[in-house]
Amino acid sequence: MGERKKARDMEFQSFVVGRWPRLLRTAFLLTGEQHAAEDLVQSTLEQVYVAWRKIAAADESDAYVRRMMINAHARRHRRRLKEFLAPRDDSGLVPEVADTGDRISQADDRGALLAALAQLPPRQREAVVLRYWEDLTETQTAEAMGCSVGAVKSNAAKGIAKLRAIPGLAETVTHGRRL
To answer: What is the pTM of this model?
Structure first.
C-alpha cells in the first residue's frame, strides 16, 4: 500500500513541476496579481492532490485542472462581479518569468496589455485569456468556463472590442500584431 501511495505522490509531483509555469501564467492573467495567482494555483493544486487518482485517469488532465482553477477563481469572486481583483494601476503587477516560447511576454507593450486586461469584466477577461493566451478552441474554452460556445464567442468579441478601443493599446497593434 505504501509503494502505491509513493508512486502516486511522485506522479503528482512530476505533474506539478511540469505544469506550474503554465498554471501560474494562466492564474496571473485571470487575477492580475502575482500573489493572488500563486494563491489560486496552490489552492487548486490542493484540490487536485485530493482528487489525483481521478484526475490522473482522465483523458485530458490538463483541461480538468484548468477547469478546477477557473471554478476556484469564479467562486472567489462571484460576490464581487463588478470589482475584479486586479490592481487599479500597474504598480502591483509583478512580471512573470518569461517563457521562451511565449511571444506575448517578449512584447515591449506587455504592461499596457496587462493593464488593459485588468479593465475587462471577469467573464470577458476569462474568455480572452483562455482563447488567445492559452490558445484554446472555442469548445475547449466553453468547457473550461462552464458555458456555451456562443457565450465564449460573445465574451471574447466584447473583450477584444474593449481592448481595441483603448487608445494606448492601439499604437501597439499597428506593429504587425492584431488584437
So the answer is: 0.61
